[in-house]
Amino acid sequence: GTTTSATTTGVPAQGPIITTVVGNGIAGGDLGDGGPATAASISGPNAVAYDAQYGRLYVCDSANNRVGVVAPDGTISTLAGTGPPGFGGDGGPATPATLHYPAQLAVAPRGPL
Judging by beta carbons within 10 Å of its beta carbon (0-12, 13-18, 19+), is residue 93 exposed, middle or buried? Predict the structure, then answer.
């Protein structure tokens, strides 16, 4: 896929049809947890990873210091990070952890991020 400052797009295998899957085109800091991924205001999406086993798409909302996850139904939620930059949370839950410009993602062969 391709990332810009405020959207992440993909090109399906059946042809050159570009579809926005994450982001509303306006850079911002509101993932819009529980809402449509296409309504999220993301900023600096640097990486995406797809979990084929569970049908989830992960996106680094890098400039907002978060990692979001898009469910198969198209809703987005914060997986990790609180927004302000930091380096805290090792050994604890991911959502309240502080991240500093996350830029890489990988999904293991059996699904976990």
Answer: exposed
Kindly provide the residue ranges of all beta strands, DSSP E only, lying in the chain, ordered along the sequence.
Answer: 2-3, 8-10, 19-22, 45-51, 56-61, 66-70, 76-80
How many C-beta atoms lie closer than 10 Å to residue 11's C-beta? Answer: 12
The whole-model pTM stands at: 0.82
Q: Return the ∠ at Cα 59 (arms to 110 and 31), rounded to 5°.
A: 130
Q: Which of 82, 51, 52, 50 is nearest to 65 (CA)?
A: 82
Name the stretches of the chain with pLDDT < 50: none
